[in-house]
Design a protein that fits this description.
Layout: H1 7-36, E1 64-65, E2 68-69, H2 75-87, H3 91-116, H4 123-130, H5 149-154, H6 169-187, H7 190-199, H8 201-211, H9 223-240, E3 260-265, H10 272-278, H11 283-289, E4 306-311, H12 319-326, E5 348-349, E6 354-361, H13 368-375, H14 379-385, E7 399-406, E8 411-412
Antiparallel strand pairs: 1-2, 3-4, 5-8, 6-7
Helix pairs in contact: 2-9, 3-6, 4-9, 6-7, 7-8, 7-9
């Protein structure tokens, strides 16, 4: 015979079941309301002040600059680097253009660094200074390496109203190398040499003396110099290890240098148009590949040696190089529509301009008005091409479409039969 349950046990069990059922019902109702009725609570946390693993980012292991290790065991220093990594989060959308620039211009920069005995990591200084373009800063620094006129002249570059060799990528790279080596001679440290490129050797010496340290990472500096090396490390990681930023299937395969014909001159050129025709090219090509020539003539009373370069293959489309080379220094001439003289039958010479849609990656501080002036278009057109309202301001990292004038496809010439 089965004995009936004890009444006391039933009285104990009944309240417990009630509580359990109540909790289950409460959680079910709360979950439904949370999902379907109430909006999620607003997150006011600044992600750059938190662990990057939240976003799948972290600082690479064994990170170094020129073989000098990054002190990752220091929390404050590590936090500063993480902030620089995170603040450049728009890299993922703008990295394609930057990779293309690096493929074009690293083959020009890397051999000079090697020849001058400067570590390869210094190529990333040009990336953060100019994004590998011949741009001009409000302070008057210019070219890939953003040299000011005084420093450029001190390191052997010609800078005057007719010639500005800060726009000559190879000569400017040689000048930058001299600065890096001067810094290393003083500090015996490549990291400090890089910081001195931004602050100046004397300025960095004073900071080290006042703060009684010989370590860049211990210094209290102005905002720009304080972030300078951290930014180099971030760009180094982006371009050498893009998968760290979640960027897949992109290899930094160099394009190689453009084969050029070099014309050496050691006197003045009174008419660049006539000079171009004599050498079977046109002013547009000369000004594109020699942006250091500022005018349509070369005044050279001291008979200094210069080398003017033109591509051996003038049939190729070089529009991908145009924006990097001419930068803010000017635009290609538009009046060279006639082919050069002494051109054989069926030889092809590119006409200078036609309209092509290109892109521009918006950087911090850039305005539509400035970009319109730089590309010689109207701000209204910029807004129209990119579907921006009259008051909308593009954020850093936005890619704008614009119409730019580029060399056209070659046009056949017809000057009679060959003899």
């Amino acid at each position: 015979m089965v004995k009936p349950l004890n009444n006391g046990f039933i009285r104990f069990l009944t309240p417990s079941l009630s509580v359990i059922l109540f909790l289950i019902l409460y959680l079910a109702v709360y979950s439904w309301l949370k999902i379907n009725v109430y909006a999620p609570s607003e997150n006011d946390l600044a992600y750059q002040n938190n662990n990057f693993n939240v976003l799948g980012l972290s600082i690479p292991k064994n990170l170094d600059f020129c073989g000098e290790p990054f002190p990752s065991n220091n929390y404050e220093i590590r936090k500063n680097l993480e902030r620089e990594f995170f603040n450049k989060s728009y890299w993922q959308s703008g990295s394609a253009a930057l990779f293309q620039k690096a493929r074009k211009w690293f083959p020009y920069i890397e051999p000079i660094l090697k020849r001058e005995g400067v570590p390869d990591d210094f190529k990333y200084v040009a990336v953060i200074e100019s994004h590998l373009s011949n741009v001009v800063s409000p302070a008057g620094a210019a070219g890939f390496w953003q040299l000011v006129p005084g420093s450029a002249r001190a390191y052997g570059l010609t800078v005057n109203e007719y010639v500005d060799e800060r726009y000559h990528i190879e000569k400017a790279t040689e000048a930058a190398c001299k600065h890096f080596k001067d810094g290393y001679a003083v500090f015996k440290n490549w990291t400090l040499s890089a910081a001195a490129y931004n602050l100046g050797i004397g300025g960095l010496q004073n900071a080290l003396y006042r703060q009684n340290t010989n370590n860049y990472y211990d210094l209290m500096l102005n905002r720009e110099t304080a972030a300078f090396v951290y930014r180099i490390l971030a760009y180094k990681t982006l371009l050498s290890n893009p998968s760290h930023f979640g960027i897949k299937k992109r290899k930094l395969k160099p394009l190689g240098k453009i084969p050029m014909k070099r014309i050496d001159v050691d006197s003045s050129i009174t008419d660049l148009k006539a000079f171009a025709k004599y050498h079977q090219t046109n002013v547009a090509i000369i000004k594109l590949f020699n942006p250091w020539l500022l005018q349509d003539k070369l005044v050279n009373p001291e008979n200094k040696p210069f080398s003017i370069e033109i591509p051996k293959d003038q049939n190729r489309d070089y529009s991908d190089y145009a924006m990097d080379l001419i930068g803010e220094n000017g635009s290609l001439p538009e009046d060279e529509t006639a082919p050069p003289v002494n051109t054989p039958v069926n030889d092809t010479i590119p006409l200078p301009v036609e309209t092509q849609v290109l892109t521009h990656l918006v950087k911090e501080g850039e305005t539509l008005a400035e970009l319109a002036g730089f590309y010689e278009v109207s701000e209204k057109d910029l807004r129209l091409w990119n579907k921006l309202s009259e008051t909308e301001i593009p954020k850093p990292g936005t890619i704008l479409n614009l119409h730019y004038k580029k060399p056209t496809k070659p046009q056949q010439t017809n000057h009679g039969e060959k003899k």
